[in-house]
Amino acid sequence: MCLKTKLIYFITLILLTYSCTETFYPKVDENISVLVVDGKITNEISSCEVRLFRTVKFTDEFSLKPEIDAMVFLHNDQGETEVLSELEPGVYKSTSNLIQGKVGHSYWIEIQTISNEKYESTPELMPSAFEIKSLYGEEVEVIKEDGSKEKGIGIYFDATNQNNKENYLRWEYRESYEYRSPYTVVKKYYDNAASTCYPLNEFPLINIYNATDLSIKDVKHLPVSTILQHEVKLEHEYLLDMDLYSISPENYQFWKKMKAIHQSNGNLYDVIPANIQGNITACENNCEVLGYFEASSVRKKQQFFSKSEFSLELSDFDQECEKFILRIEGPPPPLSKYYIIDSYFENMATVYILRWRYCYECNEKYPINKPKFWPLSN
To answer: What is the end-to-end Cα distance of the chain in Å, rounded?
Structure first.
């Protein structure tokens, strides 16, 4: 999971939208600081985590500040209570393992800030899981943002709820792959120069699905990711890592509204932040809060993909590693970013023929180690 979860990302997006637009000026008391809550407990061991942030004044450069030194209490319907520990600023986690998330039980949190503000979430019942049956790729044609089309590989999944009674899904995914710099360096810039690296991409997207119209809760061909034909992700090892959450109807509605704001393409004022009701309430009227604490069951799946699985001819060369020209009057381009192939004078300037440094030493751009979620056997 990335350092800022998707809830924080999209609440940030919303608040940025309402603080930066020139066409809409909502009445906002800039002296009010809003508490942003992003919390979750799943059926995994030690899975409870709550992130607390504060918004800053809209007149300031926008950011979210960690809410430190708060007291966060986790409760369940068995009458048990656990105090979460602040393991890093604004991030509170279960450490005693007193309360474990179990399907069919309810969970909620209480928050008391250092300034004695109090908040509480509505108890939420943890639904049974959707089992991931398969994760697979198909050749597709993609319409890109500029209207052009490109072939690629679409990755999809099938899942089923064995109890045949749950309806709402949300999924997250990330990818990593082996990247090899296409050129051999003549003179190393980095002491630890590497030609093999492991890019990691996380996708701050809202992926949800409503299965209420299905009499048998067996969902098929739900989209995960797309690899375009010009990309070199499948040239060597490519790993997709996925989490599938079975969520409550209320949690689904919350994410549906968040997604509507993100994807409304200009009609961002159909749903304003005040209309996005989470399940967190303030115990006093003068306190403002945004966010959600969810109880969800989760299933995880990883899958390696290879270009040999598909008939589509995928690129074996990173197009960004084509050489290019810069005409500069002044100091030469920094060697930490560029590899100088050649240069010559032209009038008062120097013309440089360049490639990006990472095309020779990939650690200029990507990590040299496999991410933690990469299977140990690979």
So the answer is: 21
Q: Are 264 and 17 in contact (CB under 8 A)?
A: no
pLDDT at 271: 42
C-alpha dihedral sign at 122, 126, 127, 130: positive
Question: Where do runs of H (alpha helix) occur along 198-273?
Answer: 249-263
Q: Are residues 193 and 107 in the same domain?
A: no
Q: Which element (helix H / strand E) includes 17?
A: helix 6-20
CA dihedral sign, ordered 250, 255, 256, 258 = positive
Query: pLDDT per residue over 185-225, tens digit each?
Result: 877 787 888 999 999 999 988 999 999 999 999 999 999 99
What pLDDT is attached to residue 19?
37
Cβ pair 96, 119 in contact under 8 A: no
Q: Are residues 135 and 278 in the same domain?
A: no
Closest CA to 276 of 78, 116, 37: 37
**Is residue 320 helix, strand or coil?**
helix
Q: Where do we find the tokens 């509480």?
A: 120
Residue owning tokens 């020209």: 325
| Domain assignment of residue 337, given as a range | 319-364
**Beta-carbon contacts of residue 150 (< 8 Å; ≥ 6 apart):** 141, 142, 144, 228, 229, 230
Task: Quote the pLDDT of residue 55.
Answer: 79
Q: Write the DSSP symbol of residue 89.
A: T
- Same domain membership, residue 115 and residue 19: yes
What predicted TM-score, i.e. pTM, was given to this entire model? Answer: 0.86
Rounded distance, CA 341 to CA 352, Å? 8
Helix segments in 82-133, DSSP class H = none
- Three-state SS at 188: coil
Structural tokens at position 56: 């800053």
pLDDT number for residue 263? 64
The number of folded domains in the chain is 3
Q: Are residues 171 and 107 located together in one domain of the fold?
A: no
Q: What is the pLDDT of residue 285?
A: 74
**3-class secondary structure, 37:** strand
Would you say 37 and 119 are in contact if contact means Cβ atoms under 8 Å apart? yes
The pLDDT tens digits of the residues spanning 174-195 come to: 999 999 999 988 777 878 889 9
- Do 88 and 49 belong to one domain? yes
